[in-house]
Write a structure and sequence with these properties.
Number of helices: 4
Structural class: alpha/beta
Strand order of the largest sheet: 1-2-3-4
Shape: globular
Strand content: 15-25%
Distance between the termini: 29 Å
C-alpha cells in the first residue's frame, strides 16, 4: 500500500498532521478529509482503546489522511496487533535506547 507521508519524508518534504484523542469515527472522518497528511491516534494519553482504534482506522481508510497510532506502551505484541489492524505508521513511547 502506498504511504504518501513516508514518500514525502523520503523526498525531504514536510507533512502536516494532527492528533485524535477521542474515540469518535465522525471526528476521524472529518479530520481525514480536511487536508491533513496524517492523523495520530493517541492510545497512550487519549481515551482510545484497541476496538475504537480499529474503527477509526477503518473510517480513515476512506480519506486521504494516513493513520499513525501511538501505542499505549512499548510492547511488541501491542505493536503487532495495531499493525495487523491496518495502521500505516506507529509511534512507540518509552524507547530509551537503541537496543
Amino acid at each position: 500500500m502506498n504511504n504518501p507521508v513516508k514518500q514525502k519524508l523520503i523526498e525531504g518534504e514536510y507533512t502536516i498532521g494532527s492528533w485524535i484523542t477521542i474515540a469518535s469515527p465522525t471526528i476521524a472522518e472529518l479530520m481525514g478529509n480536511i487536508g491533513f497528511d496524517w492523523l495520530g491516534i493517541d492510545c497512550e494519553h487519549g481515551a482510545i482503546g484497541l476496538e475504537s482504534t480499529q474503527t477509526i482506522m477503518q473510517v480513515m481508510a476512506a480519506t486521504p489522511a494516513v493513520s499513525v497510532v501511538r501505542v499505549a506502551w512499548n510492547d511488541p505484541v501491542l505493536v503487532k496487533r495495531v499493525l495487523d489492524m491496518g495502521a500505516r505508521g506507529i509511534m512507540v513511547p518509552m524507547v530509551n535506547s537503541a537496543e
